[in-house]
Design a protein that fits this description.
The protein is an alpha/beta fold. The protein contains eight helices and 15 strands. The termini are far apart.
Length: about 300
């Protein structure tokens, strides 16, 4: 089977590797262009491009797909039987969707129709979902609204978004491998999505990660895990941004002003919040590495009664 693959972040790497492992012919990988990163603004390739080049595959990095005649012709010239997409980051226009005879399938990081959109994994964690998963679906012109082929569910538990990304990327690759024979034979199931159950998962932005200590401990902990490992939740301590990588619920029933530091021990920085307290356990100050609070307190002091935020 000739398969064109389209993807960008680490989430999309296992499925590419799985296609290569299965012996699929991959004439082309399409991903996003190199972008400047960090303070040095050095151009950096995305994980899918790096892995594709390691596998000896041809890579295209178009700035846009819609109306891009050159990339359409390149895809047609490859004569793909199927296009597989995973977290590519661009909507495929109808002109491309119509090219492969077996269609285009997408590996999406949620149990559709919930959490359509750009940030399904983060939003599931932030919203305190007990379960999420991955859905393999046929692509349509809308936003993640095509017919579903198969799903795999996983518990969220106390996992961070980063941990779920890794788990779901592997589950998605496995689901693709299990379903590929049926897709190739034209016998894969097609289940329409219930539009009345559809929800949207927009991109997460840094500003959303500013901790509001008037919220419950559970809500704060979900926010922190949902923003780990990027863009990372934060508060303000001593006029500086304190990034918070991990937090756990503290005590119930205390009545101090939200944001008040109640204690700072090896267990964590206990901060008053809505209806109780929350323990910040892994933090990062500007110019420093992320560290356990116990390590931070070895060289720094946080006074009881200080207000964070």
């Amino acid at each position: 089977m000739r398969v064109i693959y389209m993807g960008t972040p680490r989430f999309a790497v296992p499925a590419l590797e799985k296609l290569a492992e299965l012996g699929c012919e991959i004439p082309l990988v399409i991903t996003k262009p190199d972008r400047p990163k960090d303070r040095g603004k050095k151009m950096q390739s995305c994980p899918v491009k790096l892995r594709a080049l390691e596998l000896g595959l041809d890579v295209e990095t178009p700035e846009k797909l819609k109306g891009n005649v050159d990339i359409e012709e390149r895809i047609r010239a490859c004569a793909p039987d199927l296009i597989v997409v995973a977290a590519y980051g661009k909507i495929l226009p109808k002109a491309i969707l119509d090219i492969p005879p077996l269609g285009c399938v997408n590996i999406h990081g949620s149990l559709l129709p919930k959490y359509r959109g750009a940030a399904p994994v983060q939003r599931a964690v932030i919203n305190g979902e007990e379960e999420t998963g991955v859905t393999l679906m046929y692509m349509a012109e809308g936003m993640d609204n095509g017919d579903m082929i198969a799903k795999t569910a996983v518990p969220v538990g106390e996992k961070t978004a980063a941990q779920l990304f890794e788990e779901l990327s592997v589950k998605g690759a496995e689901l693709l491998a299990e379903t590929l024979p049926a897709i190739a034979g034209g016998t894969a199931p097609r289940e329409k999505q219930d539009e009345s159950l559809a929800t949207y998962a927009p991109m997460v932005f840094k500003e959303e990660g500013i901790i509001d200590f008037s919220r419950s401990a559970r809500s704060i902990c979900c926010l922190v895990r949902g923003f780990n490992d990027a863009p990372v939740a934060s508060t303000v301590f001593g006029g500086q941004t304190m990034k918070v990588y991990m937090a756990v619920p503290g005590r119930d029933g205390q009545s101090a002003e939200p944001g008040t530091v109640l204690s700072a021990t090896k267990r964590g920085i206990e901060v008053a919040c809505g209806g109780g307290s929350v323990l910040l356990t892994v933090i990062q100050m500007p110019g420093k590495k992320a560290m356990d609070v116990s390590a931070f307190l070895a060289g720094n002091k946080i006074e009881t009664g200080v207000i964070l935020g």
